[in-house]
Design brief:
Strand order of the largest sheet: 3-2-1-4-5-9-8
Order of helices and strands: HHHHHHHEHEHEEHEEEHEE
CATH topology: Rossmann fold
Strand content: 15-25%
Radius of gyration: 17 Å
CATH class: Alpha Beta
CATH superfamily: Vaccinia Virus protein VP39
Largest sheet: 7 strands, mixed
Distance between the termini: 32 Å
Shape: globular
Mean pLDDT: 89
Bound molecules: S-adenosylmethionine
Number of helices: 11
CATH architecture: 3-Layer(aba) Sandwich
Structural class: alpha/beta
Low-confidence stretches: 1-14, 16-35
């Protein structure tokens, strides 16, 4: 309880304290306690749902369309992240008669396509991307290069409003974006993802986990949930947990990051 990690207030989506990202003052960088200690649901920390979403959209509109922008200044850890994700995913693509297919993947909260480029396009025949920030998807068209021709759809949409086409995807990858959805919207979205899976398909969530409870980040308008809260939402969505893994070799000062494979 109350470890250094928990007390350091870090951004959910972009890995590090968003005050640092936006060049905030030393005062703003001080470790702070969660706004409402003990909160375990987004309804306890999100005061105005409409504002929660519009503020996040505004925040991302001002972020440069670069790998560093996607990772809040932690662009240098992208390779560690991708290599671990590849290992995590490949066990499902390789194993036995029930292995996951490699026809089509969906990258959710895809940004400029950092994951699409290095993880999904090398493993899948086709990829669809969905993100709420139009400029990121526009940038993706050049950032992805030649291989980007295999991106079938660029959906500009909030995940809270997005329904994957039923029975369409072998893998639905959701990384560093769940904190931008309320609990209810996240559970609903995961339910729709389940319907979007092809036989033997999986949903992967990879994201920051709080030490305890739900922590609001007012700067990028996101929340960071603890492991139990995330597992609870997954259960509520009717998904089974197939595998769970903590990311290793990330900098000490950022949130713990976990991957979950679900079906
Ligand atoms: C931290 S970046 C992660 C990008 C990418 N997943 C990666 O790991 O490189 C968060 C992304 O989520 C997007 N985003 C924020 N709120 C969203 C929402 N409600 N629905 C869909 N995308 C959203 C942002 O535009 C941004 O591209």
């Amino acid at each position: 309880m109350g470890s250094k990690k928990q007390n350091q207030r870090k951004s959910n989506t972009a890995l590090v304290c968003s005050h640092q990202r936006s060049g905030g003052s030393q005062e703003a960088r001080r470790p702070r306690a969660p706004a409402r200690p003990g909160a375990s649901m987004t309804s306890a920390v999100v005061e105005d749902e409409a504002q929660f979403y519009t503020k996040a959209e505004k925040y991302w509109k001002d972020v440069p369309p670069t790998v560093d922008g996607m990772l809040g200044g932690y662009g240098h850890i992208s390779s560690i992240d991708i290599n671990s994700s590849k290992k995590f995913l490949q066990r499902f693509l390789r194993e036995g008669p029930n292995r996951t297919g490699t026809t089509c993947a969906l990258d959710c909260g895809a940004g400029i396509g950092r994951i699409t480029k290095r993880l999904l396009l090398p493993l899948f025949e086709m990829v669809d991307m969905v993100d709420v920030t139009e400029d990121f998807l526009t940038k993706a068209k050049t950032y992805l290069g030649e291989e980007g021709k295999r991106v079938r759809n660029y959906f500009c949409c909030g995940l809270q409003d997005f329904s994957p086409e039923p029975n369409s995807y072998d893998v639905i990858w959701i990384q560093w974006v769940i904190g931008h959805l309320t609990d209810e919207h996240l559970a609903d979205f995961l339910r729709r993802c389940k319907l979007g899976l092809r036989p033997n398909g999986i949903v992967v969530i990879k994201d920051n986990m709080a030490q305890e409870g739900v922590i609001m980040d007012d700067v990028d308008s996101s929340v960071c949930r603890d492991l139990e809260v995330v597992r609870g939402i997954v259960r509520l969505a009717g998904l089974d947990l197939l595998a769970e893994e903590r990311q290793e070799n990330f900098p000490d000062e950022i949130y713990h990051v976990y991957s979950f494979a679900l079906r």
